[in-house]
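From the pipeline queue, job 12 of 40. The input is one protein chain; the requested action is below.

Action: predict structure.
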Amino acid sequence: MNDSIRLGVLVSGRGRGTNLQAILDACARGETKAQVVVVISTHPEAGAVERARRHNVEALIIDPKQFAAPEDYERELTQRLRERQVDLVCLAGYMRKLSPLFVDAWRNRILNIHPALLPAFGGQGMYGHHVHEAVIESGAKFSGATVHFVDEEYDHGPIVLQAVVPVFDDDTPDTLAARVLEQEHKLYPQAEGRLHIEGRRVKIKGASPNCPH
């Protein structure tokens, strides 16, 4: 069993890259037995690209528009990740839905963080402020963040860790988003610290075979 998990981080759009930064900082402090070996972005101006380079982490730009089909793009992703011996793929502001082809190639080795307490407020179209708006409109008293493995369905795979935050009566999507994001930055590195490698799978430490989350 390899104690150090080699991370490949996928990002898309022009997000700030703050979840990547939280992972990089935790790795630098030795809080998780993992290292980011590559960051792959769909756009050269994504904040994560600059953050990676500041930490001397390789950053690649792979534009899906340059490929004839989504499957070709994902085959390229897989090739680049495998060349760098990546153990675990982390989605950090990656907005594209992964196909069954990619999910199957990385089964039990793709991690995502979602800004709500799954299985509530997940699914297609539930990302960013759409999530926080739905939480506030529902009258829910609590929200939070969820780290989970990725499968073929939106926000559906086994849950690794969750963190809870209160929803206040005067919350706006912005104020709730800020409170949830603070927990995301703590939770993602903690989740990686709970994982270990068995063969070609990344598993949760202490989880029973019948209750993976």
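Job complete. Strands lie at 5-11, 34-41, 58-61, 88-91, 110-114, 142-149, 159-166, 195-198, 201-204.
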